[in-house]
Amino acid sequence: MATPNRNSKKTPTTNGHTDGKPSRANYVHERLSPRTDLEAEGTKNVAAALNGILADVFALYLKTKNFHWHMSGPHFRDYHLMLDEHGEQIFAMTDDLAERVRKIGRTTLRSIGEISRNQRILDNDAEYVDPTDMLAELRDDNQQLTKRMRAAHEVCEDAEDIATASLLENWIDQTERRTWFLFEASRQGGADGH
Asked: I want to staple 139 with a disulfide (CB 3.0 to 4.6 A). Which of 3, 159, 171, 182 is the partner?
């Protein structure tokens, strides 16, 4: 039996057009995808959902660090440390999100430009933001992220991708915890201290 030549190039599949040119997406997919038992359409949908979340997570990470760096006021230490902890937790999601997309045979974000084109969490470039407004904005952003992760979880269920769904469940819990802390920290106390 002849041994296949490892240096020979495999011809990429065509894009279905009569011009016979290879589809760039198929060509890249064939070279970068590990094999998975999940259906191609399902992995495409899961990857799209995860890449959107990944862009939002990068945006939320940078906003959280921005507010951490620019915190001021009488609660500086508490808020500064809380946002640092939140930033670490948010950043920890990025590698797992991107690697999950790769594990299911798809490609992920490649640049800051791609993040900015896909993010739905808005940047805040204001020179000064009041500390309570910072906390409220991050609370709302974390709530948005939770909502998007729940929607992605449904996409995973449709694709029968239980591993990604499981990761999302843990991240939803972490994000709900951050939302809770931000809600409690941003409440205005009454005369009784509550």
From this structure: 182
